[in-house]
């Protein structure tokens, strides 16, 4: 018999806070976590705002994480806090006789923020001659400066696999440890692949999800150059407008979402809370273009279909879709088309929302945070809204749960994440039934 | 729970400092060539370590359809290496993918369903092109010539090409490969440094075994031959700083008096395929993948565990998964960084798992020959181990001739040795063993 995989713990760090219950309430109340960017002075950047984890919260998290993790990147601090909450939620902090070799980690962990100031200073130094004149890069001069200015710990902590390393030590997790970075799809992929590891028997417990912050000068630069970010600097609270006709790009967010996945019998034997079950996962590639999503949503359709097929479900079984819903012109149009194509007659009757309207886009961490809201939607029989939805777009003609959360029957949910470059992932989460 | 489908290796594609393509690489390996030299692609004179393993000149145009050439401008070096490896792997496997057909190399129809071809490609933290980024950054300064974030936001960033970010996202290796070869099945990008390739190959193995794909292009690629990577490795004190004058002796895995690693560039992508699919198209079968295991160092993320427990656990899990035992392994393929403490930890793991049987095992490490490229190292090592089993030959391992007293594995020092290898075990681990992975490869028998 196939090993079933259930969710026994939830934790997150988001722009709206780090308590599962408090943030969930704020999402249901249509609150928005977007503010003027404070991490660095973004006043002259095309987008001057983002959805940051509040500085005071980060400080508290760093204190709790303690001296042992003092050199960790922002991502790692988020991941530790979210994982600690999930671990405690699952009752694993007091679990007896837990086999550490059966506890693994699968994160969609982003690269840590670049140590920007010393990097930029070295770059400028490398491009000046002895008289201060601008030259092309002199690598030897750069090396001299860089080796003095850059810090070994800050550099190594940027490695995307390091958050997982910190988690392994913190929770004595000796099982499989893996990090994926399929851009915006990473944490959904991590949770899906972690599900497979448990099903196969590689682990009994997986600490999985994602963590990421790209709110740093080069991260914002990269997305700004791609013209992917909203530049609605004069109305930042309504800047993230998924599926609305006036949408002009996504808002960069940051944070972490971690879930504890557990093999059902293992969870039962230790009396763990069973919050929901992961029943399906689909992963595909568009194999189309680096810069564009396949026009017909080929990869997105295949990922959703793969997830539903593996769960043994049809479209009519899905109550709610937590969409990728970034608020870019292209994503929202094609995601809608993909849902319409796959769901056909059922497309108009499924509730769809994008919490990116409230939290911004957490990039690698987005999918895990969204998955957590699916679990809570199942628990509380209510789905979160897509806020800032005012002007219908003929290309986006489905039910996006506009502006207000909606009490409804929620038994089966689908959570979508699509990465830049065309890697697509979808998970099916269902109410647990015997 | 063991799945039903058997998974075999049908294609090997490597790009290494001693050769691109499995034949060129293998010929150089058995004739004991070394690919470590003074770095030529940039001026390394400002660095304590000035040597590395650079790839022979290659033309991206040889590995992609003509229509895709314009995309080259959005590719970091790592991506071009992955495309070279993917082309070689697909060609070696006799797969007629979109790339092969569009290049006009066959008039036959595809022999793999695109929706059943996956890609699982490990990647590193890709470094931005420093020349490009530094000259853009240096355009944004205050009157005192110091960098100005204000000027960067208002004008400086405009000096970067709009698609700048896409060059350096680690998932772009897999994305370009899937586009060129039209691989639409499960796709992943594992970013776990030197463990990436093994984790990617292991995951692809499981995906095929459970029926999620019929074949996968899997492994990894990375280039550490750029100033930023070299600076990072230098800051982490991982590099040999003593042997700039004798580069071919610089990386000495598991040797007495070893004193550090050497950076390089390269990759290894292989085709894993469901046995029934491979047999149906009468593919050449190199070997079978029969076991995978993984673990992580729970004692530290910065210092290797002197006992190598996590790596030992990964090896034991792989052996159990293969339903075999340490005594039935004839070839050990360790990573062998050449770092004093890393190699000691790795040896502890091998000795722990293999005990006295270590003395009877052949061993192969390519580090002394091709250096350490990070995420692509494991793909190359996997390919070398597969080829060793297939060719019944163990090539020499450069610079292993004065072994550490703890080293009990039988590296070949000069001429290649004939050997009937039924099973081999290959491993990779990241940093201080933060992620560890092991794969058991078996000689193919129907």
Number of domains of chain B: 2
Q: What name does the CATH topology of the largest domain in chain B carry?
A: Peroxisomal Thiolase, Chain A, domain 1
Strand content of chain A: 15-25%
Question: How much is the average pLDDT of chain A?
Answer: 97
Overview of the molecule:
The complex is a heterodimer of chains A (434) and B (446). Chain A has 2 domains: 5-113 and 158-430, 3-Layer(aba) Sandwich (Peroxisomal Thiolase, Chain A, domain 1); 116-150, no CATH class. Chain A is 35% helix and 18% strand. Chain A has helices at residues 20-28, 55-65, 74-89, 116-126, 139-149, 152-156, 162-170, 186-200, 217-225, 264-269, 298-311, 329-343, 356-359, 366-380, and strands at residues 5-13, 35-36, 49-50, 103-109, 177-179, 205-213, 254-263, 276-285, 320-322, 351-353, 382-383, 406-407, 412-418, 423-430. A 10-stranded mixed β-sheet of chain A has the order 5-4-6-7-1-8-14-13-9-10, sandwiched between helices. In chain A, α3 (74-89) runs parallel beside α7 (162-170) and α8 (186-200) packs across α14. By secondary structure, chain B is an alpha/beta fold. Chain B is built from 13 helices and 16 strands. Chain B is globular. The model of chain B has no long low-confidence stretch (mean pLDDT 97). At the A-B interface, β4, α4, α5, α6 and α7 of A face α4, α5, α6, β6 and α7 of B.
């Amino acid at each position: 018999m196939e090993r079933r995989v259930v969710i026994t713990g939830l934790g997150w760090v988001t722009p709206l806070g780090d308590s599962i219950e408090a943030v969930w309430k704020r999402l249901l109340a249509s609150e928005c976590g977007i503010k003027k960017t404070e991490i660095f002075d973004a006043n002259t950047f095309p987008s001057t705002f983002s959805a940051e984890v509040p500085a005071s919260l980060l400080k508290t998290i760093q204190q709790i994480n303690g001296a042992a993790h003092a050199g960790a990147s922002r991502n790692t601090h988020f991941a530790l806090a979210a994982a600690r909450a999930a671990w405690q939620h699952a009752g694993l902090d007091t679990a007896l006789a837990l086999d550490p070799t059966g506890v693994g980690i699968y994160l969609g962990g982003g690269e840590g923020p670049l140590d920007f100031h010393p990097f930029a200073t070295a770059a400028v130094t490398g491009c000046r001659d002895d008289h201060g004149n601008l030259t092309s890069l002199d690598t030897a001069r750069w090396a001299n400066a860089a080796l003095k200015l850059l810090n070994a710990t800050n550099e190594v902590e940027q490695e995307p696999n390091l958050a997982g390393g910190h988690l392994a030590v913190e929770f004595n997790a000796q099982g499989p440890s893996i990090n994926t970075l399929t851009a915006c799809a990473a944490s959904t992929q991590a949770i899906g692949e972690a599900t497979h590891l448990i099903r196969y028997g590689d682990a009994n417990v997986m600490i999985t999800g994602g963590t990421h912050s790209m709110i740093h000068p080069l991260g914002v630069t990269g997305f700004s150059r791609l013209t992917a970010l909203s530049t609605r600097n004069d109305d930042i609270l309504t800047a993230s407008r998924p599926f609305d006709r006036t949408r002009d790009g996504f808002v960069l967010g940051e944070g972490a979402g971690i879930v504890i996945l557990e093999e059902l019998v293992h969870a039962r034997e230790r009396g763990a809370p069973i919050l929901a079950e992961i029943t399906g996962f689909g992963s595909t590639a568009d194999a189309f273009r680096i810069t564009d999503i396949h026009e017909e949503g080929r990869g997105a359709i295949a990922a959703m279909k793969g997830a539903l097929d593996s769960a043994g479900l049809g479209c009519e079984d899905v109550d709610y879709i937590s969409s990728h819903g970034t608020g870019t012109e292209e994503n929202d149009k094609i995601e809608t088309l993909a849902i319409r194509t796959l769901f056909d007659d059922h497309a108009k009757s499924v509730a769809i929302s994008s919490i990116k309207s409230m939290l911004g886009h957490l990039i690698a961490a987005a999918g895990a945070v969204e998955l957590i809201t699916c679990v809570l939607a199942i628990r509380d029989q209510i789905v979160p809204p897509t806020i800032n939805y005012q002007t219908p777009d003929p290309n986006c003609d489905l039910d996006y749960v506009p502006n207000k959360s909606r009490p409804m029957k929620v038994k089966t949910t689908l959570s979508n994440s699509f990465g830049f470059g065309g890697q697509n992932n979808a998970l099916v989460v269902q109410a647990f039934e015997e | 729970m063991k799945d039903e489908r058997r998974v075999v290796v049908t294609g090997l594609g490597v790009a290494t400092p001693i050769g691109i393509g499995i034949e060129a690489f293998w010929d150089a390996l058995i004739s004991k060539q070394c690919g470590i030299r003074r770095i030529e692609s940039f001026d390394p004179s400002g660095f304590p370590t000035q040597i590395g393993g650079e790839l022979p000149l290659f033309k991206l145009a040889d590995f992609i359809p003509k229509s895709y050439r314009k995309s080259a401008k959005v590719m970091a070096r790592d991506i071009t290496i992955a495309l070279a490896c993917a082309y070689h792997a697909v060609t070696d496997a006799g797969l007629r993918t979109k790339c092969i057909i569009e290049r006009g190399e066959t008039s036959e129809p595809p022999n793999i369903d695109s929706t059943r071809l996956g890609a699982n490609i490990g990647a590193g933290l890709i470094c931005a092109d420093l020349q490009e980024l530094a000259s853009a950054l240096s355009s944004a300064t205050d009157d005192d010539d110091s960098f100005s974030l204000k000027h960067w936001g208002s004008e400086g960033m405009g000096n970067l090409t709009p698609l700048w970010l896409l060059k350096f996202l680690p998932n772009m290796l897999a994305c370009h490969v899937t586009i060129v070869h039209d691989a639409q099945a499960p796709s992943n990008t594992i970013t776990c440094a030197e463990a990436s390739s093994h984790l990617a190959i292991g995951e692809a193995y499981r995906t095929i075994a459970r029926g999620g794909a019929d074949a996968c292009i899997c492994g990894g690629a990375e280039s550490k031959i750029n100033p930023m990577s070299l600076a990072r490795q230098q800051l982490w004190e991982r590099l040999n700083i003593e042997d700039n004058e004798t580069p071919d002796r610089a990386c000495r895995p598991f040797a007495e008096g070893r004193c550090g690693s050497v950076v390089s560039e390269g990759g290894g992508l292989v085709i894993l395929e469901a046995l029934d699919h491979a047999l149906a198209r009468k593919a050449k079968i190199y070997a079978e993948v029969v076991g995978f295991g993984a673990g992580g160092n729970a004692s530290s993320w910065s210092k290797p565990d002197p006992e190598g427990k996590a790596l030992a656990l990964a090896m034991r899990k792989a052996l159990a998964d293969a339903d075999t035992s340490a005594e039935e392994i004839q070839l050990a393929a360790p990573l062998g960084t050449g770092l004093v403490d890393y190699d000691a930890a790795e040896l502890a793991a091998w000795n722990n798992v293999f005990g006295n049987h270590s003395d009877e095992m052949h061993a192969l490490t390519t580090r002394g020959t091709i250096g350490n490229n990070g995420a692509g190292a494991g793909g190359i090592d996997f390919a070398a181990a597969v080829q060793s089993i297939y060719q019944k030959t163990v090539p020499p391992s450069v610079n292993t001739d004065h072994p550490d007293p703890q080293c009990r594995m039988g590296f070949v020092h000069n001429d290649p040795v004939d050997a009937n290898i039924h099973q081999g075990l290959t491993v990779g681990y990241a940093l201080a063993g933060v992620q560890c992975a092991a794969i058991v490869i078996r000689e193919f028998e129907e």
